[in-house]
Specification:
The complex is a heterodimer of chains A (279) and B (264).
Chain A lengths: L17 E11 L5 E11 L3 E5 L6 H8 L7 E6 L2 E2 L3 H5 L1 E4 L11 H11 L4 H14 L15 H14 L4 E5 L7 H16 L3 E5 L3 H7 L2 E6 L2 E6 L1 H8 L4 H8 L2 H15 L10
Parallel strand pairs in A: 3-8, 3-9, 6-7, 7-8
Antiparallel strand pairs in A: 1-2, 1-4, 4-5, 9-10
Helix pairs in contact in A: 3-4, 3-5, 4-5, 8-9, 9-10
Chain B lengths: L12 H18 L1 H22 L12 H31 L4 H4 L5 H31 L6 H25 L3 H17 L14 H5 L3 H14 L6 H25 L6
Classes of the chains: A alpha/beta (279), B mainly alpha (264).
Chain lengths: 279, 264
């Protein structure tokens, strides 16, 4: 494994040690859906941060706002102290989106090469990095294969390789292991852990609670466009007096409906009890 | 898998534009049978069928043999359609498959993204124009009288139709939307703009009505560049084409700057 290189970054604003700082972020879509409501979030530099929530909670919208892929209704975003919509901030972010959105006209090598170019790399530098990432993600045999001809697992690898190609300081992984087999999932975990150990800040969204628990040193739970809980995995369990992250999730994120479902199940199992009064 | 450490990339604001331009040209060349060969063949067929075959039975038009008269308009039509269809399809595809996100999240300004996408259509249209001129001029004996005016007319035409392609590609909700604009708007207006005939021969009121067709000025501007004469003043043609091009470029730039329909 290669040693971390010297990191030269734009000077952060005074008092800012956050990799990502979000203030009062609101996003209302054209159809009136309020995806994020006055959301505040600080992710410390160097942390491995998990963002958990059900579908439609606002995770992807938040990521989209950070990565200039969504028009914010209001709010402010800074990345390592730099304005989120500026070029300096964009250079410091790498994103692997949930859906494999790969350029269908490009091979694996070209996908990485052009991505490096978009992020300001010269031809030789981008080509060298592309070859490094091809080896790092075991894509050598598919180097000259076009993206649509890759398997699901290979596409996932390529997405991650692309996100990391320009050596971002903040890596955003939107459900990176969704739909991948167990072997690849553990391979990716290993890689992401090592990347984090080298100083990269990681923001991970996932539906796999055990994944968040195993990887993240801090977890935020998002529901209806708001952060409803945030702590370490142990801290969350302690605060809610439960033994698993799943229970924390059900009590906070899934809210009343999940709790009601749970009560109903418990109620049907215990004879003669009134489900409405069981809690 | 071995991780590689984070290092900030030095800012090179022009590199993103250069790579996006290269990507767009790469796409054009990769699909060369569809993007270049097909329009060249269809335009050559027009020249051979209408010009060389039927030309002998048609009297001179504005002092030129018919096969010579139609060459500039056919080249204009091929270039305009290529610039339009290239940009509308590349933008729509990038939006539809969401790989546009890789461009939008990159450290490139809105105008750089705009210019990068314009470049692909411009290159495709230029290749088609040069190949067609290289084949048609010796074949028909058409002259190249006013090269400077021709270059100006070609640049404005390519930029204008390229910008129109971008706008349609951004607004389009299906592939049908793009072909609708091409087949129902651009193609008929170009045909009615005097590619195959001189508008001055139509007589009133059709001649005056033809002057309301903006694509008439595109054909006339390019015809003046080749033949050195046209139905209207070349400066009027260039002025109208320039004004339309400026408006379309401004519209496309507003779309990129605001992110309208590119970003939810």
């Amino acid at each position: 494994m290669s040693q971390p290189a010297t990191v030269t970054t734009p000077a952060p604003r005074a008092g800012s040690s956050a990799a990502l700082s979000v203030r009062g972020l609101t996003k209302r879509y054209a159809d009136g859906t309020l995806a994020l409501e006055d959301l505040d979030l600080d992710i410390p530099a160097g942390s491995f941060f998990g963002l958990l929530g059900p579908n439609g909670a606002g995770k992807t919208t938040l990521i989209g706002a950070v990565c200039n892929l969504i028009r914010m209704t209001s709010g402010e975003i800074t990345v390592f102290g730099q304005p989120g919509n500026g070029m300096a901030a964009r250079r410091m972010i790498g994103i692997a989106e949930q859906e494999p959105n790969l350029d269908k006209f490009l091979t694996v090598f070209e996908t990485l090469l052009y991505h490096g170019g978009y992020y300001g790399m010269g031809g030789r530098e981008a080509a060298e990095r592309a070859e490094q990432m091809i080896d790092a993600f075991d894509l050598r045999a598919k180097r000259d294969v076009e993206a649509p001809k890759l398997s699901g697992g290979m596409r996932r690898r390529l997405l991650l390789a692309r996100a990391l190609l320009h050596r971002p300081r903040l890596v955003i992984l939107d459900e990176p292991t969704a739909g991948v087999d167990l072997e690849l999932r553990h391979e990716l975990w290993q890689y992401i852990r090592a990347l984090h150990a080298q100083g990269t800040t990681i923001l991970l969204t996932t539906h796999y609670l055990e994944e968040a628990e195993a990887l993240c040193d801090e977890i935020a739970l998002i529901s209806d466009g708001r952060i409803v809980a945030r702590d370490t995995s142990e801290g969350l369990k302690l605060a809610h007096g439960v033994n698993s992250l799943e229970e924390v999730y059900l009590r906070t994120v899934a809210g009343g409906r999940a709790a009601m479902t749970e009560r109903e199940v418990n109620g049907s199992e215990s004879s003669g009890s009134d489900p409405e009064q069981s809690s | 898998m071995n991780p590689l450490p984070p290092v900030d990339v030095e800012p090179h604001p022009w590199r993103g534009l250069a790579w996006l331009t290269r990507r767009e040209c790469h796409r054009v060349l990769k699909l060369w049978k569809q993007t270049i060969l097909a329009p060249v063949i269809s335009s050559l067929l027009f020249i051979i069928v209408f010009g060389l075959s039927l030309g002998n039975s048609i009297a001179e038009v504005n002092g030129f043999e018919y096969q010579i008269f139609i060459v500039p308009g056919l080249i204009a039509m091929a270039m305009a359609q290529s610039a339009y269809s290239n940009n509308s399809s590349t933008i729509f595809q990038a939006r539809n498959d969401r790989y546009l996100d890789d461009i939008l999240s990159a450290p490139m300004s809105a105008w750089q993204v705009h210019l990068g996408y314009l470049a692909g259509g411009a290159m495709r249209a230029l290749i088609i124009g040069v190949v067609l001129a290289g084949l048609a001029l010796p074949l028909t004996g058409a002259p190249l009288e006013r090269p400077l005016e021709l270059v100006l007319a070609v640049v404005l035409t390519i930029a204008g139709f390229g910008a129109l392609g971008i706008i349609v590609g951004i607004y389009a909700q299906s592939w049908d939307n793009q072909s609708f604009i091409n087949n129902i708007v651009i193609l008929p207006l170009i045909f009615l703009g005097g590619v195959f005939y001189s508008v001055s021969r139509l007589g009133s009121p059709w001649e005056q009505i033809s002057h309301l067709n903006p694509l008439f000025y595109v054909v006339e501007a390019i015809r003046f560049g080749f033949l050195g004469s046209a139905d209207v003043s070349p400066w009027l043609s260039l002025g109208v084409v320039g004004a339309i091009t400026f408006a379309l470029l401004a519209w496309a730039q507003i779309l990129f700057s605001s992110g309208y329909r590119l970003k939810p």
